[in-house]
């Protein structure tokens, strides 16, 4: 896509925004299909001279009323309200993410303790009765239960929980960085 195509598709979008037109309405005014307007705005197609001629009265009116089309809003002239609202929302969402995974470090620590303790605990227990035999005593029932229960202990934090922990932390850090950048902009 060449430089002129970017400018022209940007110009078409500015005309639509200036006049508050939907793609369908602009297409009807220009005598082209609605899909062509979408392709032109997205930069997938280049404007033809015929479409440029039909677009000229719209752009002429825009230039007469407002002067040349600005490429960016003037620096320093903006409403602080939306930026402050976004900054607060970022901090709130980051706090919620950190709160949601607050128990995972403790859960991981408990799982790590079990990984260390399990071999010693299993070695200290007498072996359970064979699985095909019914336990003859209460002690045999307890041993079978203890071995089965210890076998089900978590060996580590499940991978999906570990991923959730890292992703939530990364997202919270990004939101906090965004909030800090907004705070700098608001203080200027």
From TrEMBL:
Q: HTH cro/C1-type domain: which residues?
A: 12-56
Concerning Pfam families, the annotation shows: HTH_31 (PF13560)
Concerning SMART domains, the annotation shows: HTH_XRE (SM00530)
CDD domains to which the protein is assigned, alphabetical:
HTH_XRE
InterPro entries reported in the protein's UniProt record:
Cro/C1-type_HTH, Lambda_DNA-bd_dom_sf
Q: What is this protein called?
A: Helix-turn-helix transcriptional regulator
């Amino acid at each position: 896509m060449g430089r002129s195509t970017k400018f022209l598709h940007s110009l078409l979008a500015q005309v639509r925004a200036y006049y508050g037109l939907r793609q369908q309405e602009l297409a009807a005014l220009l005598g082209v299909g609605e899909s062509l307007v979408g392709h032109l705005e997205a930069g997938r197609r280049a404007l033809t001279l015929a479409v440029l001629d039909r677009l000229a009265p719209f752009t002429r009116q825009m230039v007469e009323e407002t002067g040349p089309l600005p490429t960016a809003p003037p620096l320093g002239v903006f409403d602080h309200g939306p930026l402050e609202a976004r900054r607060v929302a970022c901090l709130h969402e980051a706090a919620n993410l950190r709160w949601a995974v607050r128990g995972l470090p403790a859960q991981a620590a408990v799982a790590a303790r079990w990984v260390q303790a399990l071999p010693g605990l299993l070695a200290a227990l007498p072996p359970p009765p064979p699985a095909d035999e019914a336990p003859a005593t209460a002690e045999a029932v307890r041993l079978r239960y203890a071995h089965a229960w210890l076998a089900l202990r978590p060996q580590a934090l499940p991978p999906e929980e570990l991923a959730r922990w890292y992703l939530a932390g990364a997202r919270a850090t990004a939101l906090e960085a965004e909030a800090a950048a907004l705070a700098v902009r608001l203080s200027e």
